[in-house]
Amino acid sequence: MKPLERIVVETDNNGSQITRLPNSEEMVDKINEIIRVVNELEMFKSNQSHQNFVKQMTSGW
Questions:
Q1: In which domain, by residue range, is 47 found?
Q2: Each residue of 11-44: pLDDT tens digit?
């Protein structure tokens, strides 16, 4: 996941750039991406906890 950055709008002949900040739609997209990643991490953590619990319960068999 990349951080939000200024967006290059135009670069002139001497290398100077005109940039803008991310707009509302781009910010909402980034927030949604963060939510998806957090949800995936929570699911992974939950699955790991479940697998560890099952291993502990079945280790004496």
A1: 23-55
A2: 999 999 999 999 999 999 999 999 999 999 999 9
